Structures are given as C-alpha cells and as structure tokens.
Amino acid sequence: MTDYVTVSRDGDIAIVTLDNPPVNSLSHHLRKPLNEALLKLRDDASVRGVVLACAGRTFVAGADITEFGTPKATASPNLRELIVTLESFAKPTMAAIHGTAFGGGLELAMGCHFRVADPNAKFGLPEVKLGILPGAGGTVRLPRLIGPEKALKVIVSGNPIGAKEALAEGLVEAIYESDLVANAVKFVREKASSDAPLIAVRDREDRIASARADLPGFEAKAAELLKKSRGLDAPKRCVDAVRNSVTMPFDEALTTERKYFVELVEGDQSRAQRHLFFAQREAAKVAGVGPDVKPRQVKRAGIIGAGTMGGGIAMSFLNGGIPVTILEMTQEALDRGTANMAKNYDISVRRGSLTEEAKAKRMGLLKGTTDYADLGDCDLIVEAVFEEMAVKKEVFGNLDRVAKAGAILASNTSYLDVNEIAASTSRPSDVLGLHFFSPANVMKLLEIVRGEKTAPDVLATALDVAKRIAKVPVVVGVCHGFVGNRMLAARSAELEDLLLEGATPQQVDKVFTDFGWPMGPFAMGDLAGLDIGWRNRKSLGKTAAIGDALCEQGRFGQKTGKGYYIYEAGSRTPKPDPEVEALIEEKAREKGVNRREISADEIAERTMYPMVNEGAKILEEGIAARSSDVDIVWINGYGFPVGKGGPMFWAELEGLGRIVDRLEYWHGRTGKDVFAPAPLLKRAASEGTGFTALPKGKAA
Ligand code: T1G
C-alpha cells in the first residue's frame, strides 16, 4: 500500500508528490487524497506556492483506463473537479514533469499556472488512440497554450511532442537538466514574490484570438489531418472540440467536450481500441517466460539475405541502435541490398522523418559480408532467404557451424515448420521463428514462432529485442502460416469462386474498404505481386483459373502495370479493367458456372467469417494463447481497422451465433471445409461466453 499523495515543504512552497505505480494514472484512490491535499494548501496562508510532482518513472500518464465503464471513472472528485480546484488557487501552481505527461496527466498539468520538465519528458493527448478525446479540458486548454493549429495536430494524431518542442511552443516554461523539483520550487517562489498577475490557462486568449481570424486555415489543416483516420469517429470529434475552443466561450467549449467524450467512450469503437491497448500488453506476457526468465544480451545481430525482407529486417535492428552484420552470397547482391537500405533511409530524410546524421549513424552500424565466418560474433542471427525448406536447412547447417555458443538462430519463414528447421541443427533450443511482415522496416507486427524445443530465455530475448526495435510481438505456435497467414488463407479461399460466380474484383474490394480495411484483397494482391501466389500454388500443385490466367499473361499487378486492375503510367491507383471482367466471364463459361448477382453480405460472409473460424481453430490448437493475441496480429500485420478491435473482438460484436449460423448455411450449400464451424466457435456461441472468457492457453 503506498501513500498515493504526500505533501512536503520547502519553506513557504509545498511539494505534492503523487505515487500510484506503475504510471501514476489518476485512479480514484489517487484523485481523492490529491483533491483534499490541494484544498488544504489552497487555504493555508503559510503556503505561497505549490509544486505538483510524481514519484516513479513518469508524471501522470493519464486517467486510469481500467476504471472506464465502472463507477470509479466518474466518482467524485473526478479529473475535471481536480482541475477546477487547481484553477481556484490565488497562488502559483506548477507541474514538474518527467517521463510521459499523457492524457489526463497533461490536462492536470495544464490546470496549473506553470509547467517545467526534464529534457526527456514527453507530452501528449493520446486519447484519440483509445477512440475518445481528451475529456478534462485538454481540447480547450492546449490550444490556449500552443495555438489551435499545433494543438489540433497533437490531439488528432495522439502523438507526443518532446520537451524541446514543448518549450518552443509555450507548453512548458523551462527545462531543467537536473534537480527538477528543486528548480521548480525556486521558479514558484520567484513567481510568488513577483507582482505580475497570475493568469490561469483558461484565461489566456491571445493564441485563440489570432486563430479566430483565420478559421479557413484551421479547417484546411483539420481536413488534412482527418485524411488518415477513415471511418473513425474520435478524430472528427477532436477537430470539433478544438474548433469549439476557438469559436465558443471557454465554459461552453468545455461542456461540449464532455458531451463528445461521453458519446465516444460508450461506443463500440472506443471499446475496441481500449481492448487493443491492453491486448498488446497482454500479448507480451508469455506462459513460462515470467520476469524471472532473463533475456540473453544481444549486442550484434546477423541478417542472412539482403533482399527486400533481409534489408527491411536489418533496418529494423539499425533503427533500434543494434549493430548488424548482413550476409549475401555475392558482393554484387550485397552491394545492391545495402544500396537499397540507404535509398530507403534517403526517402525518410527527404520526408523529414529522419535526419542525415541519424541515417549516417544507422548505416555506420552496418557491416556487410559474403563470408559466414563473419557472423561468429553475432548474438542473434535471422535468416531471410528463399522460402524453401531445403534452402533453410542449408543455411541453418552453416549457422550451426559458425555461430558462437548461445547465439540465437531465427528463421523469418512465413509458413514453414520451425521445428523441422530447428531439428536440422545441434542446438534446437536456440532456434525459433521471427516472422517479420513486409515492408519489415515499417510493419509493426513480429510473430515470434515458438518451437517445441525453444528455450524460455530465447523467447524472453526475442520479446526484449522486439521492444528494442519497436515491433509488436505475438508469440505463436508452429503450423502452416502460423496465425496471420493461416487466417489470410481462409479469408482468401473463396475469392476465385466469388469472381467466377458473379462478383467483380472492384465489388469485392469495396466490401473490404467499406468495412475499413486499407484496401481489398485484389488490390492487395496487385500490390504484393500476383506472381508470388502463382509460384506458391505451382509449388503445391494447386491452380486458380483466374489468378493463373492473369499471371500467364504477365499481369503480375502494379509492377507490370496490370493485374486484377490497370495501373496507368506510374499511377498506383487501381482502375477496373474490362479485359479482366471478360476473362472472368470466359473462365466461368469454361467451368459451366452460371454467374449471378452477389451481395455485399455474401462477400463478407464468405471471406471474413471463415477468417474468424480459422482463428477459433488456431485457439483450439493452442497456436495462439489468447483471442486478443489474434487481434493484435491482424491489427499490426494486416491493417484490420482499429475501430473494430481485430477479427475476434469484431466477431463478438457481430454475434458469434450469427457467424455460426451463416457458416453452417454456406457449409450446407457448398460442402467446403472452410465453412465447417470450429467446435470452439460453436461452444463460445452456444455458451454466450465469447472468446475472451475461454481459458488462457499457451502458444504451442
Ligand atoms: N491506465 C491504466 N493502466 C495503464 C495506463 C493507464 N492510463 N497506462 C499504462 N498502464 C499500465 C499498462 O497496462 C501496463 O500494465 C503498465 O501500466 C505499464 O504500461 C480524461 C480519459 C505511459 C507510455 O493513453 O501510453 O487520460 O501490463 O507497458 O511501455 O482525457 O503505458 O504492467 O499490468 O505501456 O513504459 C490517456 C497510455 C488515458 C497513456 C508507458 N493516457 N499509456 O509505456 O509501459 S485516457 C494514455 C501509455 C485519459 C483523459 C482521458 C504507456 C506509457 P501491466 P506499459 P511503457
């Protein structure tokens, strides 16, 4: 039990220290004593100023999200009442900020007259990422401190700004390299002795007045920011609330902000996004890999293969500050690969998201070689070679020979059996899969494939490295395609037949984009390259009448200017192609398929429901430990719309009973296995428990 709030004195200045591990979130058990302490200090004539600080690793990181949906969230004193108490002070108040002043934490700090910070502090209002908006005055106070346009960017993106930017924009008064609280006390004492009037943030109008003069500029900025948040309600409400801070009196804007907050927090989108917040943290908690299992040290990584995947994986490590030795078979391939990596960094520099010196620093951590022996000092080696078992086994044979004792050997395979790869070495307990998603330096998901013999500390090391290279890890078991690609196969199984039976590529893709996917399966195929699937089918002795015909005509997608769609010179925008529709009709005739009108519901039922069904089978087999792990895979690896919480969370919203009924209908009509409802899905539907109530498994 900690003292959540302690009050100490430095002469005539009071220091109020909050202590609510792990991130000082504003739980009710913290709010109550804090409000009581502040009221006492406000009326204590011996106190001439107050500094608000936090113990532990960070200033207040926000409201306590675990209280949402419970009476505690709004129990008095709520956060808005706390801020009113702060703003009723006639003496200077200051927040001394270290770590991350996020959400309600930043709102609390803006209830103070002043804010100071340490150089590494971060400031943000990430509520939009939880499907809500700042609900304690953030949308009306932040514009008064840094201007509505800047505030709009912070609130709509949900991304933090650093201390330097906060100082430059006027969010903080000073940055102190050391002795943050002592310097804050000095600052407050000077203010208490000054004749200058104390102006609460709510009463600062200068930044608002100038914005009022240029509302069209504000609207243009808002429209630009909203482009990236298709289908989500919260970003739009964030814009409305910041606009209100400019066009409405403070109290009216504050009341309206509250109305928006209540509307959003009770909606499915926010429930979905809050589910994902905790699901991502849950996914990093792996059975048998508790805090007692220490990760191995990874000072240097080895990457085998400098192609698209190998180069992207190498960049992920370099971005995390981990030195890399990258190996190719020939100097020419090595030079081409490293040149591609430099080119990718140049694009980021041109975009302004990377500085030249940061690029140079990262490339300076890279060593290239064509000699396996040079991998001898690597602590972790990831192969990204051709997706063929024989090739993988040859590579691991070489690694077994040259890698030092204790080095972790990882395969980036998308489908193949990691146990079989591990068995081809003398050190199977040091082997696992690290499945990155293309482009590997961009996509957040990392499927950590746990082999039967993978040692716990090897998994702990993979989880630790994932955090260092800013990936979102999910531990999965061994099966064809693990979690993501196995479910993708189920989602794709009906695509050819849907075209033959009457749908067009653009009609199917529209069902997906209307659902919130960034693009539909056919546009995605054209982007990735249809020849990949074609080669995969041929290796498995499978055929796809339309997909094969397109590839036989050299229509591989965007890279050839034609695939399911046409891509006019240099454009990446898919345009429907009458030739493709004629090809589909011809193939349907050849197969004696009578084409018919196909509804959007049918398309969804024959693609997304089998995907959920496969997810249930994956849970049954223990390939994923939790349904929320499956959600995290799809959000971070395939662009599943965050407002729907991932396939398993969405399925519960959709109704598991309805999904079972429709799967049974299509199974009866077609006899196809992909529609046979998984027993676990039927049980979750009949017991009405949903997936989340099922016992938590351990990824096999
Ligand atoms: N409430 C409850 N628990 C939280 C929490 C929060 N706000 N933030 C983190 N945790 C838990 C988290 O689940 C994990 O628990 C542990 O703390 C460590 O977190 C009115 C309504 C601060 C940058 O959205 O961004 O304020 O797994 O693993 O990587 O307008 O946590 O250990 O049991 O993430 O060092 C707005 C969310 C809330 C910030 C630290 N604030 N948190 O990252 O640790 S809404 C946020 C973060 C709000 C107001 C509105 C990060 C972090 P466990 P962690 P980390």
TrEMBL record:
Main location: other
Pfam families: 3HCDH (PF00725), 3HCDH_N (PF02737), ECH_1 (PF00378)
InterPro entries for this protein: 3-OHacyl-CoA_DH_NAD-bd, 3HC_DH_C, 6-PGluconate_DH-like_C_sf, ClpP/crotonase-like_dom_sf, Enoyl-CoA_hyd/isom_CS, Enoyl-CoA_hydra/iso, NAD(P)-bd_dom_sf
Catalysed reactions listed for this entry: a (3S)-3-hydroxyacyl-CoA + NAD(+) = a 3-oxoacyl-CoA + NADH + H(+)
3-hydroxyacyl-CoA dehydrogenase C-terminal domain location: 481-567, 603-688
3-hydroxyacyl-CoA dehydrogenase NAD binding domain boundaries: 301-477
SUPFAM superfamilies documented for this protein: 6-phosphogluconate dehydrogenase C-terminal domain-like, ClpP/crotonase, NAD(P)-binding Rossmann-fold domains
Keywords, comma-separated and alphabetical: Fatty acid metabolism, Isomerase, Lipid degradation, Lipid metabolism, Lyase, Multifunctional enzyme, NAD, Oxidoreductase, Peroxisome
Pathway(s) of this molecule: Lipid metabolism; fatty acid beta-oxidation
Cellular compartment(s): Peroxisome
UniProt family annotation: Belongs to the enoyl-CoA hydratase/isomerase family. In the N-terminal section; belongs to the enoyl-CoA hydratase/isomerase family.
Subunit structure: Monomer.
Stated name of the protein: 3-hydroxyacyl-CoA dehydrogenase NAD-binding domain-containing protein
